[in-house]
């Protein structure tokens, strides 16, 4: 579902970059309608699974907090998408310049509100993840892989010689300020407005192309930054060696299973 929200924000960028011009609204409307249908189908599928599956044990939820999906946030954001689509439908049919100008102002407000709901995904994810990292004592991280389509995976581990315990997955990455070796992270958060302003000197505007995630260590006095659309995570234990038996939430590193998919 995160990837669908990334696509929604890309459409919002196009609308705003073109100042809600009539032609861009005509172009964006069917694409946004298709994404809305995709999101609604995902919600329906999730509801269906929750109805059929047995209740997940508290132990499993403690070990894998990413399973605590906040579907309320998704529904609220979907409601804002529906509102934006209704406004776009009116815009597409509008012909009078005064009406179009009024609608453009309303569309700017609609997109601003929608971005607020989408950003709640990030803050909710961080609020879930942060206490779990503290509880598990995971502070060592390193860049696991980065793909050509802008996805960055950072692995966190208690003993990265043998396995990692968490993967931070950043979508639509625009800029990185990270070490190439193992680094310490005590806290993950969104950057402040002051930090974003300071980062302009080194990022030259890239800090405006997504959310700025700060990975910091107060003990070492370090702050690292990732500019990306969204963050999600996975708390499987991933082993760097073959094991005969795997429990729930355990898997073997992909580079051991398929040499064409390097994990290291």
Report what the structure shows.
- This protein has 264 residues and is an alpha+beta fold.
- It has helices at 2-17, 22-52, 58-63, 71-93, 97-136, 193-203, 254-257; strands at 140-146, 152-157, 163-164, 166-171, 175-177, 183-184, 187-190, 211-217, 222-228, 230-234, 237-239, 250-252.
- The longest helix has 40 residues, at 97-136.
Briefly summarize what is shown.
The protein has helices spanning 2-17, 22-52, 58-63, 71-93, 97-136, 193-203, 254-257; strands at 140-146, 152-157, 163-164, 166-171, 175-177, 183-184, 187-190, 211-217, 222-228, 230-234, 237-239, 250-252.
Topology:
Blueprint: H1 2-17, H2 22-52, H3 58-63, H4 71-93, H5 97-136, E1 140-146, E2 152-157, E3 163-164, E4 166-171, E5 175-177, E6 183-184, E7 187-190, H6 193-203, E8 211-217, E9 222-228, E10 230-234, E11 237-239, E12 250-252, H7 254-257
Parallel strand pairs: 11-12
Antiparallel strand pairs: 1-2, 1-6, 2-4, 3-11, 4-10, 5-9, 7-8, 8-9
Keywords:
7 helices, 5-stranded antiparallel sheet, 264 residues, 4-stranded antiparallel sheet, 50% helix
Low-confidence stretches are none
| Shape summary | globular
Terminal residue distance: 26 Å
Work out the number of β strands: 12
Order of helices and strands: HHHHHEEEEEEEHEEEEEH
Average pLDDT value?
88
Q: Could you describe the largest sheet, including whether it forms a barrel?
A: 5 strands, antiparallel
Strand order of the largest sheet: 6-1-2-4-10
The helix content is 40-55%
- Which structural class do you get from the secondary structure elements? alpha+beta
Q: How many alpha or pi helices?
A: 7
**What fraction strand?**
15-25%
Rg for CA atoms? 21 Å
């Amino acid at each position: 579902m995160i990837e669908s929200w990334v696509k929604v924000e890309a459409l919002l960028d196009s609308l705003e970059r073109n100042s809600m011009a009539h032609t861009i609204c005509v172009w964006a409307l069917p694409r946004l309608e298709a994404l809305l249908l995709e999101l609604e189908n995902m919600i329906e599928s999730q509801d269906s699974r929750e109805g059929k599956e047995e209740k997940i044990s508290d132990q499993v939820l403690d070990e894998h907090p990413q399973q605590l999906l906040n579907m309320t946030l998704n529904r609220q954001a979907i409601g804002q998408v529906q509102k934006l689509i209704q406004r776009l439908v009116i815009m597409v049919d509008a012909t009078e310049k005064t009406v179009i100008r009024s609608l453009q102002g309303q569309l700017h407000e609609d997109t601003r509100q929608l971005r607020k709901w989408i950003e709640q995904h990030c803050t909710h994810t961080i609020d879930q993840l942060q206490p779990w990292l503290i509880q598990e004592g995971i502070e060592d991280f390193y860049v696991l892989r980065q793909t050509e389509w802008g996805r960055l995976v950072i692995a966190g581990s208690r003993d990265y010689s043998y396995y990692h315990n968490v993967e931070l997955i950043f979508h639509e990455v625009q800029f990185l300020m990270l070490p190439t070796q193992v680094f310490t992270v005590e806290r993950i958060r969104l950057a402040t407005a002051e930090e974003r302003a300071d980062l302009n000197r080194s990022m030259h505007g890239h800090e405006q192309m997504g959310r700025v995630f700060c990975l910091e260590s107060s003990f070492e006095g370090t702050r690292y930054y990732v500019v990306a659309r969204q963050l999600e995570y996975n708390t499987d234990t991933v082993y760097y060696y073959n094991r005969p038996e795997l429990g729930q939430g355990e898997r073997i590193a992909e580079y051991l299973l398929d040499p064409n998919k390097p994990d290291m």
